[in-house]
Design brief:
mainly beta
Length: 168
């Protein structure tokens, strides 16, 4: 098998190859929250709509993540779609050891005790219906129970390791 000049040189599958390929994939930015012994949350670019009927979504979380213990036990989680004006919020929830719910983060306790972030484009409170093992991660399947799609602004994207604004 020879490589096509248009495709470049094939590389063997590896974690680095997967990361390199997905750096080319622009993804929406979400923050997932849960209530454990206190509020927890993390930035996710793996959020996916799974089904419309019944409504289901999914996201991935590493089992070594600081939020995993709370997410592994939570009956409900919060899903927040971030706007381009929320780059710093996305970075805070992505940074290990950050004070994610400190004074710089505006939030409140929402339905089912889920921490809800203020000023997002849209949010959902979801009931967790499954946690599926997937390598060093879990795929969490959740059913929305309440939410609001009407926040102001345009979506924040993640591409090439950076938070970016949507361009027309």
């Amino acid at each position: 098998m020879t490589a096509s000049p248009d495709l470049g040189t094939p590389r063997a599958a590896s974690p680095e190859l997967l990361r390199s390929v997905f750096r080319q994939h622009a993804a929406g930015v979400a923050v997932i929250t849960a209530q454990g012994t206190g509020p927890v949350g993390f930035t996710a670019t793996s959020l996916t709509s799974v089904a419309a009927d019944p409504p289901l979504l999914s996201f991935g979380i590493g089992t070594g993540a600081s939020s995993w213990p709370a997410v592994s036990e939570a009956g409900h989680i919060g899903v927040h779609i971030l706007g381009e004006h929320q780059r710093e919020l996305a970075a805070t929830f992505a940074r290990s050891g950050a004070d994610r719910f400190g004074p710089a983060t505006s939030w409140r306790t929402g339905p089912e005790g889920v921490p809800l972030l203020d000023g997002v484009l849209a949010w959902l409170v979801c009931e967790v219906v499954a946690r599926v093992p997937a390598g060093d991660h879990r795929i969490v399947l959740a059913r929305p129970v309440v939410g609001d799609p009407a926040g102001p602004g345009r979506p924040l994207l993640y591409h090439q390791g950076r938070f970016n604004a949507l361009r027309d």
